[in-house]
TrEMBL record, chains A, B:
Single Gene Ontology BP annotation: tRNA processing
UniProt GO MF annotations: double-stranded RNA binding; metal ion binding; ribonuclease III activity; rRNA binding
EC number: 3.1.26.3
Name used for this protein in its record: Ribonuclease 3
Length: 236, 236
């Protein structure tokens, strides 16, 4: 008789089996579902992820200054990038969300996915120690880091989006603040970024308007690159 | 015949002996001295320090939210706090500085000391592995974390300073930008924070005006608490 481990497929995808599965369960629990949620683990995971990516970049790019390394790391650990990795791991399938979040598609929301991935990494560190976390982070990031075009990655997303649009003779994107929640310093801004001529838009949240705009720009640029891999675009 | 290790006393104070002393040497070299300076190591050290302090706070304060943990960590890893630890280690005595920095007292400057401490921690991680870095960080921070009053520590420095002054019927502090160097995003602001009635002031640098003001406020508050441990103050 085989025993089904919690999130067995996810643990296989991560290449790590938890000794204390309750830590994994907590890492996959959004605050909308239960008071034993993943935010404290996310704090720990954010720490170890940033440290490990810093070390990997230090070794991979011996010619880069601290400022360049820092910009490059921001590219790899930003919400958008983490959400892509979480999606590849199908992490959304294992999330425990409250009813509201479930109905509004929370298991596909980039912020929820990125936070849960960080929480899972934090849980692995606490469960299996540093080498376990290092092995998983290496497996998830090493190829991405080896293949990156550093110049592209170090440009901020708003600049890259602007350059992409200008190269196609399109107007600058439009940024709008959709919502502003909470009070400083825990404020959350939700902004949209729209390319009017192509009728494409993105939304993102951030702890500052600028951060949210960067996220939204990066996300729209990704959509645009998928939709129009070449130089030709179709105005709508 | 005894061989004098580089910075032998510092290595003893850290409780860590380097296998590759050139890493320690680099960690102690300011950019004003040589092109093989400590900024890349500082990037790595900042990462591991943040991760380790995150884990320690996670275990020490199981009741705290992610936001509280994050504010508490900011208190322990901010420039001012790191500069104090660096001073206790007499790290300034081992720094290689350029002539200009030497003349202007660079080996006592909080930003240089804090950066060098982070670089040393990064060098220990690279030289001796995770457990070595964890042991040193634990030794430097565990007692401070155990003894902290979290409520005080989580308040931002400007708020704490304002409260201290108001409790003594003094006016609000005055913040002035003294210098603004470099270009965005590598800008450095130097600000002063002055309590006019007590004729006491502090200076600090930061990558934003707000960050510099926070540093300066924290530094002035520390001076004020030393000078006036009780409620009574002497206007000058």
């Amino acid at each position: 008789m085989s025993v089904v481990l919690p999130a067995e497929r996810l643990q296989k995808a991560l290449g790590y089996i938890f000794s204390e599965p309750r830590l994994l369960k907590q890492a996959l629990t959004h605050r909308s579902h239960s008071s034993t949620h993943n935010e404290r683990l996310e704090f720990v995971g954010d720490g170890i992820l940033n440290a490990l990516v810093a070390r990997r970049l230090y070794h991979t790019f011996p010619q880069f200054s601290e400022g360049d390394l820092s910009r490059l790391r921001a590219h790899f650990v930003r919400q958008d990038s983490l959400a892509i990795i979480a999606t590849e791991l199908q992490l959304g399938d294992y999330l425990s969300l409250g009813e509201g979040e479930l109905k509004s598609g929370g298991h596909r929301r980039p912020s929820i996915l990125a936070d849960a991935l960080e929480a899972v990494l934090g849980a692995i560190w606490l469960d299996g120690g540093f080498e376990s976390a290092a092995t998983v982070v290496e497996q998830l990031f090493a190829a991405r880091i080896a293949e990156v075009n550093p110049e592209d990655a170090m440009k901020d997303a708003k600049t890259s989006l602007q350059e992409w649009l200008q190269a196609r003779k399109l107007s600058l994107p439009q940024y709008d603040v959709l919502r502003q929640m909470g009070e400083s310093p825990d404020q959350i801004f939700e902004v949209s970024c729209t390319c009017v001529e192509l009728k494409m838009a993105s939304k993102a949240e951030g702890t500052s308007r600028r951060a949210a705009e960067q996220e939204a720009a990066g996300s729209l640029l990704k959509q645009l690159r998928l939709q129009y891999p070449g130089k030709k675009v179709v105005k709508k």
